Structures are given as C-alpha cells and as structure tokens.
Amino acid sequence: MLPIAWAVFAGLVGPVVAAFCLAVEPPPANPNAPEPLIGTLLGLALMIAWGGAAITAGRRRASALTWASVVGGLSMAMTISCPLSGHHTSIGMWWIGQFIVCGAAWAAAGIGLHSIHRARVDT
Hints:
Blueprint: H1 4-24, H2 37-58, H3 63-84, H4 93-122
Helix pairs in contact: 1-2, 1-3, 1-4, 2-3, 3-4
C-alpha cells in the first residue's frame, strides 16, 4: 500500500504543476491562432494521466507514482513544445520556471517510485 504522503503527492502533482504553469505563462503569441495539434494531443494525454494518478492515488496503489511520473514527463513535453509549436515565440523566465517545476515534479515521482520499489525489495 502506498504511503499517504506519496498518494497525496501523486494525486495532486498534476493540478499543482498546471496551476503554476498557467500562472507564470504569458499570453500566446497569437491568441486567435488554433491550438497546435501537438498541444491538443499532449493535453489529452495529460488529462488521462491526471485521471490515472488521481484514481490510483485514491486507492493508495504504487502505480499512482508511475502515473505521476507520466504527468511529469508530459508536463515537461508540453513546456518544451510550447515555443517550438509557435504558441509562444520567445523563451523567458516563465519558461525556465515551468521547466524547473515540471522537471522537479517528474524527478520527485521517479524518486518516490524508486523508494517504493526499493522498500518492497528490502522487506
């Protein structure tokens, strides 16, 4: 069974990272431009990962950390693809902040997953 602290982390990491990213992100380069296909696909995958993380975290399953790792990876992919897709035309401190927060979330999920697997091997 997943410890409560890791379950809370896994269940909330997606919305917390998204809230931060939305708070620091400037308006798009062209607000009337359609959403790039890559953004739509990554966003859909991210919503699925959020659901997987929330459901498995609620059940306190170790797989919640796998889902949280997917959330971190997808958040990182969205951060990287944003200026590449033309959604934003420049990289600034907002982008560096998003990169650091998404990377930290991804790394924390990986560390949690590793610690859970290690604890299972040690017992």
